[in-house]
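dude i think i finally got it to work??
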Amino acid sequence: MNIPMNALVSDMVNLLDERLREDFEERAGIIEFDAELSRDHAECLALLDVLHRHPSALCGVTVLRVALDGSDLWILVTNPALTHQQFGNVESGVFDLKDVINQQFNGFAILKAI
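look at this
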């Protein structure tokens, strides 16, 4: 990927995880060509779109669901690679923090260290 032209956009895009960065790049390209906007303008709009759909994207925390012994564990991590060190080679997915709290914990979750 090319580094975004706008310094603020570049700083924020560098905080996105790989999945959301790919989403940003795809969205920026679509906006640039379909709306015939400058790349700089398209990247700003693409970043706003990603942040609108994933409000916690820049907080540096990733929510993982890990299937372990037939049940799901919901894990908050700042380094997803640590999950594989802790739990081995397990299947996991990445989720939006707000959605997980609302859907899995009825809008209220208590964190407990393991």
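The longest helix spans residues 18-34.
im so relieved honestly
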